[in-house]
Amino acid sequence: MTTRILPVTPQSLAYAKELIDAGEVVAFHTETVYGLGADATNDEAVRKIFALKGRPADNPLIAHVHEGYDISSLVETPAWTKRLRDRFLPGPLTMVYPSKGKVSAYVSSGLPTLSIRVPSSPAAQAFLRAVDRPIAAPSANRSKHVSPVTAQHVYDDFAGDIPLILDGGASQGGIESTVLDCTGAVPLILRAGLVTREMIVAEVGACENYVLQEGEKPKSPGMAYKHYAPACATKFFGAQELSAAVQCYQNEEAAGGAPCLLCEHAVCGQYPALRALDLGRTPEEMAANLYAHLRTGERQATLLIGVEPRARGGVMDGVLNRMLRAFGQDAKERRHDG
Predict the structure, then answer these.
(1) In this structure, are residues 121 and 31 in contact, taking their beta carbons and an 8 Å threshold?
(2) Could you tell me the sign of the dihedral formed by the alpha carbons of 309, 314, 315, 320, in that order?
(3) pLDDT tens-digit map of 31-45
(4) Residue 41 and residue 104 share a domain
(5) C-alpha distance from residue 162 to each of 24, 154, 207, 231 (Å)
(6) Is 313 a domain residue?
(7) Taking Cα atoms as reference points, which of 96, 103, 43 lies closest to residue 73?
(8) Same domain, 170 and 117
(9) At what angle do helices 197-204 and 81-88 cross, to 10 degrees?
(10) Do the beta carbons of residue 306 and residue 290 sit within 8 Å?
Protein backbone atom coordinates (compact mmCIF):
# COMPACT_ATOMS: atom_id res chain seq x y z
CA MET A 1 0.00 0.00 0.00
CA THR A 2 1.21 3.50 -0.83
CA THR A 3 0.80 6.02 1.97
CA ARG A 4 0.09 9.54 0.74
CA ILE A 5 0.63 12.70 2.78
CA LEU A 6 -1.72 15.38 1.45
CA PRO A 7 -2.58 18.91 2.57
CA VAL A 8 -6.16 19.51 3.62
CA THR A 9 -8.00 20.57 0.45
CA PRO A 10 -11.47 19.85 -0.98
CA GLN A 11 -9.88 17.14 -3.11
CA SER A 12 -8.04 15.41 -0.26
CA LEU A 13 -11.13 15.64 1.97
CA ALA A 14 -13.24 13.98 -0.73
CA TYR A 15 -10.62 11.25 -0.99
CA ALA A 16 -10.61 10.86 2.80
CA LYS A 17 -14.40 10.44 2.79
CA GLU A 18 -14.14 7.74 0.11
CA LEU A 19 -11.63 5.88 2.25
CA ILE A 20 -13.70 6.18 5.44
CA ASP A 21 -16.82 5.04 3.54
CA ALA A 22 -14.84 1.99 2.38
CA GLY A 23 -13.81 1.07 5.94
CA GLU A 24 -10.25 2.32 5.65
CA VAL A 25 -8.15 4.19 8.21
CA VAL A 26 -7.12 7.84 7.72
CA ALA A 27 -4.64 9.77 9.88
CA PHE A 28 -5.59 13.38 10.61
CA HIS A 29 -4.32 16.44 12.45
CA THR A 30 -5.72 17.67 15.76
CA GLU A 31 -4.54 20.48 18.02
CA THR A 32 -3.02 17.93 20.43
CA VAL A 33 -1.58 15.02 18.41
CA TYR A 34 -2.38 13.29 15.10
CA GLY A 35 -5.20 10.72 15.21
CA LEU A 36 -5.63 7.37 13.45
CA GLY A 37 -9.28 7.50 12.44
CA ALA A 38 -11.95 5.12 11.16
CA ASP A 39 -15.76 5.00 11.04
CA ALA A 40 -16.85 4.44 14.65
CA THR A 41 -20.01 2.64 13.50
CA ASN A 42 -18.08 0.05 11.44
CA ASP A 43 -16.87 -2.94 13.48
CA GLU A 44 -14.25 -4.04 10.98
CA ALA A 45 -12.88 -0.54 10.50
CA VAL A 46 -12.52 -0.06 14.28
CA ARG A 47 -10.85 -3.47 14.65
CA LYS A 48 -8.41 -2.38 11.95
CA ILE A 49 -7.24 0.48 14.19
CA PHE A 50 -6.44 -1.94 17.01
CA ALA A 51 -4.58 -4.25 14.63
CA LEU A 52 -2.55 -1.46 13.03
CA LYS A 53 -1.46 -0.02 16.35
CA GLY A 54 -0.96 -3.34 18.13
CA ARG A 55 -3.30 -1.90 20.74
CA PRO A 56 -4.77 -4.03 23.57
CA ALA A 57 -8.44 -4.74 22.96
CA ASP A 58 -9.41 -3.52 26.44
CA ASN A 59 -8.00 -0.01 25.85
CA PRO A 60 -10.97 2.15 24.69
CA LEU A 61 -10.95 4.63 21.82
CA ILE A 62 -12.35 8.16 21.56
CA ALA A 63 -15.10 9.12 19.10
CA HIS A 64 -14.34 12.44 17.36
CA VAL A 65 -17.11 14.60 15.92
CA HIS A 66 -17.35 18.05 14.35
CA GLU A 67 -18.68 21.09 16.19
CA GLY A 68 -22.18 20.87 14.73
CA TYR A 69 -22.67 17.14 15.36
CA ASP A 70 -25.57 16.22 17.66
CA ILE A 71 -23.82 14.18 20.35
CA SER A 72 -27.17 13.48 22.06
CA SER A 73 -27.73 10.93 19.29
CA LEU A 74 -24.75 8.99 20.65
CA VAL A 75 -24.73 9.55 24.43
CA GLU A 76 -26.71 10.68 27.45
CA THR A 77 -25.54 14.14 28.53
CA PRO A 78 -26.14 15.15 32.16
CA ALA A 79 -27.34 18.75 32.44
CA TRP A 80 -24.28 19.94 34.35
CA THR A 81 -21.96 18.96 31.48
CA LYS A 82 -23.32 21.72 29.23
CA ARG A 83 -21.24 24.35 31.04
CA LEU A 84 -18.08 22.40 30.27
CA ARG A 85 -19.00 21.96 26.61
CA ASP A 86 -19.83 25.64 26.26
CA ARG A 87 -16.53 26.66 27.89
CA PHE A 88 -14.02 24.19 26.48
CA LEU A 89 -15.34 22.81 23.20
CA PRO A 90 -14.16 22.65 20.56
CA GLY A 91 -10.87 21.98 22.32
CA PRO A 92 -8.60 19.46 24.02
CA LEU A 93 -11.22 17.93 26.31
CA THR A 94 -12.68 14.43 25.93
CA MET A 95 -15.88 13.77 27.87
CA VAL A 96 -17.04 10.27 28.83
CA TYR A 97 -20.81 9.77 28.87
CA PRO A 98 -23.27 6.87 29.16
CA SER A 99 -23.48 5.43 25.65
CA LYS A 100 -26.65 4.90 23.63
CA GLY A 101 -24.99 2.03 21.79
CA LYS A 102 -24.97 3.72 18.38
CA VAL A 103 -21.31 3.00 17.61
CA SER A 104 -19.30 -0.21 17.45
CA ALA A 105 -18.87 -1.92 20.82
CA TYR A 106 -15.17 -2.19 19.98
CA VAL A 107 -14.79 1.59 20.38
CA SER A 108 -15.46 1.43 24.12
CA SER A 109 -13.99 -2.07 24.57
CA GLY A 110 -17.41 -3.32 25.69
CA LEU A 111 -17.94 -0.65 28.35
CA PRO A 112 -21.38 1.05 28.64
CA THR A 113 -19.78 4.47 28.06
CA LEU A 114 -18.51 6.45 25.09
CA SER A 115 -15.73 9.03 25.03
CA ILE A 116 -16.53 12.05 22.84
CA ARG A 117 -14.09 14.68 21.61
CA VAL A 118 -14.65 17.82 19.50
CA PRO A 119 -11.19 18.95 18.36
CA SER A 120 -10.55 22.62 17.67
CA SER A 121 -8.05 22.08 14.85
CA PRO A 122 -9.47 23.54 11.60
CA ALA A 123 -7.99 20.56 9.74
CA ALA A 124 -9.78 18.13 12.06
CA GLN A 125 -13.04 20.05 11.80
CA ALA A 126 -12.83 20.02 8.00
CA PHE A 127 -12.21 16.26 7.96
CA LEU A 128 -14.99 15.51 10.45
CA ARG A 129 -17.48 17.70 8.57
CA ALA A 130 -16.54 15.97 5.32
CA VAL A 131 -17.27 12.50 6.69
CA ASP A 132 -20.11 13.71 8.98
CA ARG A 133 -20.02 10.71 11.30
CA PRO A 134 -18.23 9.79 14.54
CA ILE A 135 -14.62 8.86 13.89
CA ALA A 136 -12.94 6.52 16.36
CA ALA A 137 -9.34 7.60 16.74
CA PRO A 138 -6.44 6.99 19.09
CA SER A 139 -3.12 8.74 18.55
CA ALA A 140 -1.53 7.78 15.21
CA ASN A 141 1.49 5.87 16.51
CA ARG A 142 2.35 2.25 17.15
CA SER A 143 1.18 1.16 20.57
CA LYS A 144 3.49 2.38 23.36
CA HIS A 145 5.58 4.50 20.96
CA VAL A 146 5.82 8.29 21.20
CA SER A 147 2.66 10.06 20.05
CA PRO A 148 2.94 11.93 16.71
CA VAL A 149 2.77 15.70 16.39
CA THR A 150 3.65 15.93 12.68
CA ALA A 151 2.52 14.09 9.55
CA GLN A 152 6.08 12.78 9.18
CA HIS A 153 5.88 11.15 12.61
CA VAL A 154 2.76 9.29 11.45
CA TYR A 155 4.49 8.28 8.23
CA ASP A 156 7.48 6.98 10.18
CA ASP A 157 5.19 4.57 12.06
CA PHE A 158 2.68 3.61 9.36
CA ALA A 159 4.24 4.04 5.91
CA GLY A 160 2.80 1.33 3.68
CA ASP A 161 0.05 0.41 6.16
CA ILE A 162 -2.48 3.25 5.78
CA PRO A 163 -3.55 5.02 2.57
CA LEU A 164 -3.72 8.66 3.69
CA ILE A 165 -2.31 11.16 6.16
CA LEU A 166 -4.07 14.54 6.12
CA ASP A 167 -1.32 17.05 6.88
CA GLY A 168 -2.50 19.95 9.03
CA GLY A 169 0.97 21.02 10.12
CA ALA A 170 2.52 20.52 13.55
CA SER A 171 0.15 19.94 16.46
CA GLN A 172 0.64 22.86 18.82
CA GLY A 173 -0.88 21.47 22.04
CA GLY A 174 1.61 18.63 22.19
CA ILE A 175 -0.07 16.21 24.61
CA GLU A 176 -3.36 14.38 24.29
CA SER A 177 -6.69 15.75 25.47
CA THR A 178 -7.84 15.72 29.06
CA VAL A 179 -10.27 12.83 29.54
CA LEU A 180 -13.12 13.57 31.95
CA ASP A 181 -15.57 10.97 33.27
CA CYS A 182 -18.99 12.66 33.23
CA THR A 183 -21.08 9.64 34.25
CA GLY A 184 -21.46 10.66 37.92
CA ALA A 185 -22.41 13.71 39.93
CA VAL A 186 -18.79 14.93 40.12
CA PRO A 187 -16.43 14.97 37.12
CA LEU A 188 -13.39 12.70 37.38
CA ILE A 189 -10.16 13.26 35.42
CA LEU A 190 -9.14 9.94 33.90
CA ARG A 191 -6.22 11.43 31.95
CA ALA A 192 -4.65 14.82 32.64
CA GLY A 193 -4.13 17.25 29.77
CA LEU A 194 -4.34 20.86 28.69
CA VAL A 195 -7.76 21.44 30.26
CA THR A 196 -6.76 21.30 33.91
CA ARG A 197 -8.56 20.31 37.08
CA GLU A 198 -8.45 23.93 38.22
CA MET A 199 -10.16 25.07 35.02
CA ILE A 200 -12.90 22.47 35.41
CA VAL A 201 -13.50 23.35 39.07
CA ALA A 202 -13.89 27.00 38.07
CA GLU A 203 -16.79 26.04 35.80
CA VAL A 204 -18.69 23.38 37.76
CA GLY A 205 -17.39 23.71 41.32
CA ALA A 206 -15.82 20.28 41.77
CA CYS A 207 -13.49 17.84 40.05
CA GLU A 208 -11.46 14.86 41.26
CA ASN A 209 -8.51 12.93 39.87
CA TYR A 210 -9.26 9.26 39.27
CA VAL A 211 -6.70 6.60 40.18
CA LEU A 212 -6.95 3.28 38.32
CA GLN A 213 -7.06 0.39 40.76
CA GLU A 214 -4.94 -2.71 40.18
CA GLY A 215 -6.76 -5.20 37.98
CA GLU A 216 -9.43 -2.70 36.97
CA LYS A 217 -10.35 -2.30 33.30
CA PRO A 218 -9.28 1.13 31.99
CA LYS A 219 -12.15 3.55 31.31
CA SER A 220 -10.21 5.65 28.80
CA PRO A 221 -6.98 5.75 26.79
CA GLY A 222 -3.72 6.46 28.61
CA MET A 223 -4.58 4.83 31.93
CA ALA A 224 -3.22 1.31 32.13
CA TYR A 225 -0.20 0.82 29.92
CA LYS A 226 3.28 2.16 29.38
CA HIS A 227 2.91 4.79 26.67
CA TYR A 228 4.85 7.36 24.70
CA ALA A 229 8.15 5.43 24.89
CA PRO A 230 11.07 6.40 22.63
CA ALA A 231 12.84 3.61 20.73
CA CYS A 232 16.18 4.00 22.50
CA ALA A 233 17.65 3.27 25.92
CA THR A 234 16.34 5.60 28.62
CA LYS A 235 16.93 6.54 32.22
CA PHE A 236 14.95 8.90 34.39
CA PHE A 237 15.94 11.11 37.31
CA GLY A 238 13.84 13.15 39.70
CA ALA A 239 14.12 16.92 39.98
CA GLN A 240 16.39 16.57 43.03
CA GLU A 241 18.71 14.08 41.31
CA LEU A 242 20.31 16.39 38.79
CA SER A 243 23.90 15.57 39.80
CA ALA A 244 23.17 11.87 39.36
CA ALA A 245 21.69 12.55 35.90
CA VAL A 246 24.85 14.44 34.89
CA GLN A 247 27.02 11.60 36.18
CA CYS A 248 24.94 9.14 34.16
CA TYR A 249 25.48 11.33 31.08
CA GLN A 250 29.23 11.41 31.65
CA ASN A 251 29.40 7.64 32.16
CA GLU A 252 27.58 7.00 28.89
CA GLU A 253 29.83 9.42 27.03
CA ALA A 254 32.98 7.84 28.53
CA ALA A 255 31.77 4.46 27.30
CA GLY A 256 31.61 5.79 23.74
CA GLY A 257 27.86 6.44 23.67
CA ALA A 258 25.90 9.51 22.61
CA PRO A 259 23.84 10.57 25.63
CA CYS A 260 21.28 13.34 25.61
CA LEU A 261 19.37 15.06 28.39
CA LEU A 262 15.67 15.82 28.13
CA CYS A 263 15.06 18.59 30.62
CA GLU A 264 13.55 21.99 31.33
CA HIS A 265 15.23 25.20 30.17
CA ALA A 266 16.78 26.03 33.56
CA VAL A 267 18.71 22.74 33.60
CA CYS A 268 19.94 23.29 30.05
CA GLY A 269 21.28 26.65 31.18
CA GLN A 270 23.21 25.07 34.05
CA TYR A 271 25.02 22.61 31.76
CA PRO A 272 25.49 24.31 28.38
CA ALA A 273 28.30 21.90 27.38
CA LEU A 274 26.02 18.86 27.54
CA ARG A 275 23.88 17.73 24.63
CA ALA A 276 20.28 18.45 25.66
CA LEU A 277 16.76 18.77 24.33
CA ASP A 278 15.18 21.84 25.93
CA LEU A 279 11.57 21.24 26.97
CA GLY A 280 11.08 24.96 27.59
CA ARG A 281 10.37 27.38 30.41
CA THR A 282 6.59 27.13 30.92
CA PRO A 283 4.24 24.16 31.32
CA GLU A 284 2.65 25.02 27.97
CA GLU A 285 6.03 25.03 26.23
CA MET A 286 6.92 21.69 27.84
CA ALA A 287 3.64 20.16 26.69
CA ALA A 288 4.15 21.43 23.13
CA ASN A 289 7.76 20.19 22.94
CA LEU A 290 7.67 16.85 24.77
CA TYR A 291 6.73 14.41 22.02
CA ALA A 292 8.75 16.10 19.29
CA HIS A 293 11.82 15.97 21.56
CA LEU A 294 11.23 12.32 22.45
CA ARG A 295 11.14 11.53 18.72
CA THR A 296 14.32 13.53 18.14
CA GLY A 297 16.03 11.86 21.09
CA GLU A 298 15.35 8.34 19.87
CA ARG A 299 16.99 9.19 16.54
CA GLN A 300 20.06 10.94 17.94
CA ALA A 301 20.89 9.40 21.32
CA THR A 302 22.15 6.03 22.51
CA LEU A 303 20.80 6.96 25.94
CA LEU A 304 18.05 9.52 26.54
CA ILE A 305 18.19 10.81 30.11
CA GLY A 306 15.00 12.37 31.41
CA VAL A 307 15.16 14.93 34.22
CA GLU A 308 11.87 15.66 35.95
CA PRO A 309 10.78 19.33 35.75
CA ARG A 310 10.21 21.10 39.05
CA ALA A 311 6.88 22.77 38.31
CA ARG A 312 3.67 21.18 39.60
CA GLY A 313 -0.06 21.54 39.07
CA GLY A 314 -2.21 22.62 36.15
CA VAL A 315 -0.86 21.62 32.73
CA MET A 316 2.18 20.07 34.44
CA ASP A 317 -0.03 17.22 35.66
CA GLY A 318 -0.41 16.14 32.04
CA VAL A 319 3.23 16.78 31.14
CA LEU A 320 4.54 14.76 34.07
CA ASN A 321 2.05 11.97 33.40
CA ARG A 322 3.34 11.58 29.83
CA MET A 323 7.00 12.03 30.76
CA LEU A 324 6.91 9.44 33.53
CA ARG A 325 5.13 6.92 31.30
CA ALA A 326 7.54 7.57 28.45
CA PHE A 327 10.43 6.63 30.72
CA GLY A 328 8.57 3.67 32.24
CA GLN A 329 8.23 5.26 35.65
CA ASP A 330 5.70 4.75 38.42
CA ALA A 331 4.17 8.17 38.99
CA LYS A 332 4.05 7.45 42.72
CA GLU A 333 7.76 6.69 42.94
CA ARG A 334 9.31 9.27 40.58
CA ARG A 335 12.81 7.89 40.71
CA HIS A 336 15.35 6.89 38.06
CA ASP A 337 15.35 3.35 36.70
CA GLY A 338 19.10 2.68 36.84
Answers:
(1) yes
(2) positive
(3) 999 999 999 999 999
(4) yes
(5) 8, 10, 39, 21
(6) yes
(7) 103
(8) yes
(9) 120
(10) no
